């Protein structure tokens, strides 16, 4: 027997939507602020500045992605939840690229595209 899908009230959906949208805004700002020093130090990945910026970015991204997971509740509408999960995955891929000295451009573009979809859905 297949379990039936959970249904949520309009109030639960609205609250989950509002929470996810507000969380997305704060997370984007925090991740951006953490990435600025890292990107500035990218030309010299062996520098102490790069290593410090990478450590900060790692901490911020891991905390903020978990925050997004917690604030993307099951009642969150799929037009917000799906790209939010894509944003989390892509942002973690950026972090993995930075940590392993790989090119971050593709996952960074994917992250931006996913968050653009979240912001667009939150405007509706």
Automatic annotation (TrEMBL):
It comes from the Bacteria. Keywords: Plasmid. This is Uncharacterized protein.
């Amino acid at each position: 027997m297949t379990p039936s899908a959970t249904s949520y009230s309009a109030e639960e959906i609205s609250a989950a939507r509002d929470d996810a949208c507000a969380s997305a805004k704060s997370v984007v700002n925090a991740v951006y602020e953490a990435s600025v020093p890292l990107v500035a130090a990218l030309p010299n990945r062996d520098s102490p500045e790069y290593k410090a910026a990478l450590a900060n970015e790692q901490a911020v991204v891991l905390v903020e992605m978990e925050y997004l997971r917690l604030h993307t509740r099951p009642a969150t509408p799929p037009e917000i939840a799906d790209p939010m999960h894509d944003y989390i995955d892509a942002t973690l891929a950026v972090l993995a690229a930075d940590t392993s000295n790989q090119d971050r451009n593709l996952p960074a573009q994917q992250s931006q595209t996913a968050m653009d979809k979240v912001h667009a859905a939150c405007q509706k």
